[in-house]
Write a structure and sequence with these properties.
Chain lengths: ~220, ~220
Amino acid sequence: LVDASPAKFTALRREVVTVPARRIVVRAGETPTKLYSLYNGWCFRFVLLPDGRRQILSILLPGDLLATQAMYVNPLRYSVQSLTEVTLCVFDREDLLTALRNDPQMPDRMSARFAREAAEADERVLGLGQLTAIERVARLILRLTNKLKLRGLLRDENVEFPLRQEHIADALGLTAVHVSRTLSMLKEDGAIVMGRNALTITDRDRLVELAGNYQAAALN
Amino acid sequence: LVDASPAKFTALRREVVTVPARRIVVRAGETPTKLYSLYNGWCFRFVLLPDGRRQILSILLPGDLLATQAMYVNPLRYSVQSLTEVTLCVFDREDLLTALRNDPQMPDRMSARFAREAAEADERVLGLGQLTAIERVARLILRLTNKLKLRGLLRDENVEFPLRQEHIADALGLTAVHVSRTLSMLKEDGAIVMGRNALTITDRDRLVELAGNYQAAALN
DNA sequence: CGCGCTTTTGACCAAAATCAAGCACTGTGG
DNA sequence: CCACAGTGCTTGATTTTGGTCAAAAGCGCG
């Protein structure tokens, strides 16, 4: 949204805020009057089951809207938490809805954004329903790096990577232990190298192969 | 869409067609110029992996649009197949887009529809990522019957149910064999009774309990 | 140095997949 | 009216993938 029409949105922007890592930015059950776009840093969107199980619905990267759903579905059905320190652009929900009604270009843009999000959700359903652990992990890495590349946030094959293995596990429907084993395989295969908060893809072709040769279409 | 503003859409409707069971209605990779809404019968939306694995992304019931994505994402990334004989209302993609631009109420409506679909996709991700086989099957049954009830297509607890166990399996990321065993448990528990093309919920509370007491919010 | 947090590793377990056989229903043709 | 073909369902034996539990090892940081 921000990148789609910077000028218009800058005009609507109310403020820019900074939030530390590991904070809940938006909480499920609320009916927020503010909307946020992620300007800098990483977040994730998740739901909790009553028994404590957590499903991460998506990883949010700079340029993403934090809670698109808040525009139309209330109360909000998921929470959003920061992974790193993040900077957010704050918008007023009513301002955005008004702009949506008055600007003839907005409906298409908004619908296109929703359609893209739905397509991404379909991708995730496919992954969780049909893919093995290695395929899921390999694809997650490919998806994230592809997206960063498209947004010009990736110089070489080396990324800042703030996800803990527990996040990967909760995003992919696996356990942290099994993610550890799976990542070890990717490392032994020479496909990736991981540092504390960094990831390097050393053999992209191999990674694509391990992802089942199913490259998610770019969509962006 | 159809039910949301019948009059407007009836005006846009180009024709009504009937398609037999087990036909592919829309094929992934195409860029359809027609859009369909499901007037009668059941369909499902799915993707195939190169190696033959199939993920059913959603089950479509009367009132659903067949391929919302076709409005904005091209080429289409999933296929749609009929489960029963279906009757479809046919719309011209350009007509709809024009209506969307000219009718001030349409953008909100369309965005709301997308948002709802995205929320449903999130539900599916949650289910595939965190739930056990019994929970998934129980929830699928609850979701479908709830939706039918909301649309006034369900008299008692007895539904026409055209899904084969293989469909359930491919929708839930299980195998048909395991779905068979899981359904047997539900039957032995006295929660449901299944006939050839019919399903009866005999103990809804028990079913909700088996679904992990996590009732998907209605969303409709 | 030592305290948290995260990752790794190992031994063991469980849920679901796989393989394979047999059964039941339905619809068709003799 | 019955044989039988096709499709889908059930069941059992076995294997696999990933989960669980628990301990130990790394690592960043005060």
